[in-house]
Fold these 2 entries.
Entry 1:
Amino acid sequence: MRKPIVAGNWKMNLGSVNEAISFVRAIRHPLNEIEGVDRVLCPPFTVLHPISEILLPLEIGLGAQNMHWEDQGAHTGEISPSMVADLCQYVILGHSERRAAASLEDSDEAINRKVHAALSHNLTPILCVGENLAQNEAGETHAFVYTQIQSGLQGVSKEQAPSCVIAYEPIWAIGTGKAATPGDVNRIIGLTVRSALADLFGEEIAQKVRVQYGGSVNVGNIQSYMVMPEVDGALVGGASLKPDFVDLVRGALPSQ
């Protein structure tokens, strides 16, 4: 069985050190007591260091929201893989909010370079893929998501692939309150995401890679996704900023 993984993406929230520390201290012990689910917090870069120290004795993972692919150099404002690896175990790559901002240059090629850099630094990449509303309504979801996975994981070895996490996050469901139905998510992950993985690495490896769903996931609907056989957890946005994020993670337990 694939172990569920729930990651809380804070985005550009809880950025002040005191605010972030207070929140993590409030949830860390109940969150740490949950067994059977990998728990990951992904705060802004500015608070990674203090939060890493708070989480150090605990079994809660820490992730960055992005990184550059180069270890060092003239890249003003960027964060290198080695900088991330000093503090984190995970890194979110290719989030739709970054893909949509052309000036950030998060192209498929750039994301692929980031995936390789993450793996070379023993970081677990959470590779985000997903279609927009127009593509969904035009029946283009399969082709678009398939291509994103093939491009993002190009050149990754069969040995490295199980260390990756895929987050299927339909853009039209992110932060809108309009979540994709559990059945549709299960179908897309099973027929599209795992097909793309199987064509790259073979069916056996495709069944080992964990695939999350992201898009308006909350305490009230998490269990409806987790009963789907293809869903291995969630990439959570706004709901990860509230104390009941602990209850959301608990709802991802396989026994629920």
Entry 2:
Amino acid sequence: MMLLTRITTAVLLTLGLAAQAPAATNADLEARLTALAAQVQSLQAEVAQLKAQNGAASAATATGPTVAAAAALPATPAADTRLDWFGYGEISYSRPDAATDTTADVGRFVFGASFQFDERTKFVSELEVEHAIASADDSGEVEVEQAYVERQLGESTYAKFGLFLIPSGMLNESHEPTRYYGVFRNLVDTAIIPSTWRELGASVQGTTAGGFGWNVGLTTGPDISGWDPTSTEGMESPLGSIHQEGQLASAHDLSGFVALNYTGVPGLRIGASLFTGDIGQGQQGFDNRLSLWETHARWTPGAWDLSAEYAQGNISGTARSNQAFIGNPVLIPKEFYGWYAQAAYVATLPNDWTLAPFARYERVNTASSYAFLGTGITPDALRAEEVGTFGLNLNIAPGVVFKVDYQSFDRDSANDRFDLGLGYAF
């Protein structure tokens, strides 16, 4: 309205001046009309601009910011699909027959992350907290379980560099609680193969069209010079007491491994592995070599899940190393072994739940023989421990399992216990 008033006023003023003035020449009139036309054109442009602004404001009120306004707003970053999170954990309740030793524990709390740098290269990591609290006064630990870069070399060939799991046995690389039966991991894959066993190094693995998988690598190895003859830890797991886990690992002596698996028949997996290397790490008095081999098989016909595994370790040069330990309760064994057989039946319930009753028998000996040190000095071989485990796994959702079992120990019946557990993996 203000612009229309200005236009009307300008026209009337011009006409009034023309009426009051003396007769003008044609040239004067043309000049005045030209000036008036210019003013009108300028005012029309202002009107058009004002209409455009009013229209944009109305559209913004009705539908949101205009295209120009939206372009001026800061962009919202899209989710990075190259980053992936995963994890697993387990909670347990364990009641031995000696009920005074009953415990409840957050055994493991693990978060992992992987990042895809490009279509062939990714980084994988896992950070684990054991037993809920880690401090100088507590039993818990915080540890990097894996940290490696994987590079795809071919259609079915990969290389790893960093801290990764050793492909030994059936549980070490597949150790999430949703992947095994029973509240706790079996003794063969803890006392003989120290799951989760990881080393620093490099490996190459691949598969063939016929169903064969292979994996070879060069890594750090255990450090036998760290053996503590006063601790029972070496009796519980010889390699578990001396493997280095990537923590300022002595790397004077490296080790190598090879693993083979066949999965060419549906429901069948057969495999074996060997880990070997010098483990003295250049320390005086320790010239020892470790060889740990294992073989395993798993068959899942229909609802049945049948598996078995055998593992054996040998350490050479222990006679010389044990000379310094004579008189202590725990010397370095020359040989240790373990095996188990297991059967489970997986029944499907309503709501896609599954219930799997299982039974497992295992025989483990962490010191089946010692190198000869002299009559009356050489320790006697341990008596093998035989364990029967009976229980149920109840999966209530993909990645969530409730477990219950009872374990009976032949050599040390004081360890007989009833266990409850909750496991998850995502």
